[in-house]
Amino acid sequence: MNKLWNMLILAGMMLAVAACVKSPCNFPPDDTSVKIDSTNLPIVWIEVGGDSIMRDQRIDAHMKIVHNGDGHLNYADTIAHPGQHIDYDGYIAVRHRGNSTYISSPKKPYSLRTLSEPLKKGGKKKKVSLLGMGKDNDWVLFAPYADKSMIRDQLTRELSQPWMELTPQGRFCELYLDGIYYGVHVLSEAVSKGKHRLALNRPGEDGDALTGDYLLEVDCNDETTYTSKHHPVTTDGKPIADHRIQFQYKYPHIDDLSEAQLDYIHRRINDMENSFETGNYAKYIDVASFIDYQLMMELCHNVDAYRLSGKFYKRRDSVDPRFKMVVWDTDLAYGNADHRQAWRIDTWMYENNDIMLNENEVYMVPSWWYWLNHDARYTSSLKRRWAELRATHLSTQRVMATVDSLAALLTTQRAEQRNSRAWPRWGVHVWPNHYDADSYTDEIAYIKRWLTERIAWMDSQLKQ
To answer: CA-CA distance, 457 to 464, in Å (whole number)?
Structure first.
């Protein structure tokens, strides 16, 4: 592991020790006296009875959500305000999630699984609709911390949902854990198998059934991975000999994949990666999906783009033989990060391997993106698609209106102010922020300034 990752692990351990000194469990906020009277956001209560939420295994919990609908207030005092709409009231299994977000942030994210009965009684999964999202049992509760605006992930979702096959939905909410206010969170769909997510079929053992469906991820090696046969490359196309790309198995899980299935998907990855250098890539990837993914990652200049949380999937050959991309995890985007030159408005993230190599980064951008962006057919389509999106879903007016509407959700009923009382960080440097805003208004203004400059630069670079 590189030096930065080791420093993050150490910092995470120190945060964990400090939190456990304050309280025996669950990393409470700085100010535990904050309370909600009324809010426009759904209120989520999770009760674990004082048990410690773990990172590597789930524990039993109970979750209740009050949500009276958009445009209506929700009240924390359910006795004084009876008859409110209960969106969910039942069992869940909960654990902490995340890598750097877990290690470096005292405000922890969670993975939730809705259950029909507690784990200790069998823990059967229960598919439910939460806050209007499609029925499923696999949910994420993000905890925006390094993103002081708290809107960056949601901004990416709302901008890309109209034009990508799958962008997971999310809803702002305010969380109580064992009676303590933990601030603004985002209850989100996971990128997973499911009727309302990726409607993936379990792959078979031979024939067409063997060819799908598979969900994979370019990510770090904290899970069992498959190692690419291709090295990442520098901006001049030279292989970086001591680096490799790692692929994690998201569906089916590695434990559920047979030897035949592993052999197939490995060969398919190899064939896809070979095709980029030969120019025969259209047989193996949905070019439109890759273009849309690239444009979204470059618009937000996501420091982790392509190399971490890079989710992609493939259906059976009889349905669609090509890999497609999914947008995910942009809390360090939109000028938020101070490393890998992520704050800049005038560079391409797909060309970032040179910078990462100089900074001893382990996880690098796959060579795919170099070869694609040096192919005239791809770049012509990329420019044409940018022009289409700038005239519609990515017009400056729509982008800025989306920023304003998301910020308004967090300020009109003082959710952001409550979060900032629980986690006071204005004017304080939080890793890896490039800009240390002194107020929420200042942070939103920074995002809008950054986006204005970024869009103008991309317009100049992607002229047809």
So the answer is: 14
